[in-house]
Structures are given as C-alpha cells and as structure tokens.
Amino acid sequence: MRKDITIAATPRSTRGKNEARRLRVSGQMPAVIYGTSKDPIAVAVNPKEVNKILHSNTGHNTIFDIAFDGGAGEPVMIVDWQHHPLRGNLLHVDMQRIDLEKALVVSVPVHHKGEARGVKLQGGLLELVTREVEIECLPNDIPEFFEVDVTDLGIGQAVRAGDLKLAESMTLISPAEAVLVHVTSLKAEEAAPAAGAAAGPAEPEVVKAKGKKEDADAPAADKKKK
User: Which of 13, 62, 154, 197 maximizes the CB count within 10 A of its CB?
Assistant: First the structure.
C-alpha cells in the first residue's frame, strides 16, 4: 500500500562490519537498495524511521519514498530486515525499488471476525491455520489485510484461500485449497492423546541448531527476518 512517507538516505562509499558499527554508533543503519534493473546502492538510513514503517498497520507491504540529499524520492518497499538476536534493535534492511505500473507478489495478513457457530452452539474449537496469503497485484492495490467472517462456520467447516474476495487487479498465488480457518471438534482433540498413549512413548526428536555468520552488507537471501 502506497503511503506519503519519505525517508532520507545517504550513499555509503565504504562497506563492511567496522563501517556498519560506526554507522550504528552515530544513530544510522546500513541498508541496500536494489531492483528495477538498476545497480544496487549501499546507503545509510535512520533505523527509527524504518521501525515506524515495519510496525505500522501495513508493515513491510508499505510502499514509501527514499530520497537522496533532499532530491526527489523513488518508491521502495522493505523486503528483508535483520534484528540483533539479543538486544532486538534493527541492524540492517534491504529495500527494493518499485515500478508502480508492474504487478508484484506480496504476502497479506488474514484477520477473522465474528464468533463461529460451531464454537458458540456446538462446543467446537476455532483454529487459525494460515495467517497470510500470497497474491499478485499492482503496488497501489496492495490491501492492508483480508478479513474472514467465521460466524456461520460449524464443526468440520472451513474457509479456504479460494474463498477470499479479491479485487479485479488481484490474483491469488497461494493454493486455493489452503485452509485459512476451520472449526474442529473438542472430542476429537481429546481422543488424540489417548490413542497416542496406547501406541507407547514416542522417540524424542533431536534438533540440531545451525550456526549463523553475520554480514551487515550481505544480500537479503542470506539473512533471516525476525
């Protein structure tokens, strides 16, 4: 969703961990801008302004302007970001230039409203299965969220991605059969542990943690969102 927001950016001539630390001490943060067949640019931005966008109603789907040295801004979107694993402060962002005339794929949150009939009258349990769906649309048509009315859902009934009402410019990318929300029976939920107990104790699952190397100027694909 396009917003009337402009963030100032300063091109960076040097890169690396030491330069990134110096930027953060000065109150700035390293970032990279790429896309629309132009060369990537390493810049410095204010992390507080970026955080405001990430925590807004439209979040990372916000399209805003990035401006250099007070010049005219160009539309961009935040596509990846990195927080400090302990302190939680924003360390780095990747921003993509946006062509407002070309469709793009985005993930849109799914909200629900109402009290399901299967919960209120039948004693069932409402489960939120999928919290985001992917769609393709023009940048200016990105919705803030999709709202699903669960009032008429009974036990065993569900709302699927294909049931969403999309505007003409939108195309569903997520599988149409993907369940967004459904109502299940509490009796079935209670019976499952008893059946598992009869089969005997399960072997514990061992999960190995993988190490991660931090690189302040690495591409977005090499970093995890937090």
Answer: 62
What pLDDT digit, counting tens, does each position of 67-81 carry? 987 677 899 999 999
Q: In degrees rounded to 5, what are phi and psi of residue 179?
A: -75, 130
Taking alpha carbons only, the member of 47, 57, 2, 55 closest to residue 23 is 47
Amino acid residing at 203: E
Q: Is the pTM of this model over 0.90?
A: no
Cβ pair 216, 16 in contact under 8 A: yes
CB proximity list for 6: less than 8 A, separation 6 or greater: 64, 65, 66, 67, 73
Closest CA to 103 of 136, 75, 134: 136
Q: Where are the alpha helices (DSSP H) in 35-133?
A: 47-54, 117-120
Q: What is the DSSP string of 26-80?
A: TT-EEEEEEETTEEEEEEEE-HHHHHHHHTSSSGGG-EEEEEETT---EEEEEEE
| Residue 190 near residue 213 (C-beta atoms within 8 A) | no
Q: Output the pLDDT for position 211.
A: 42
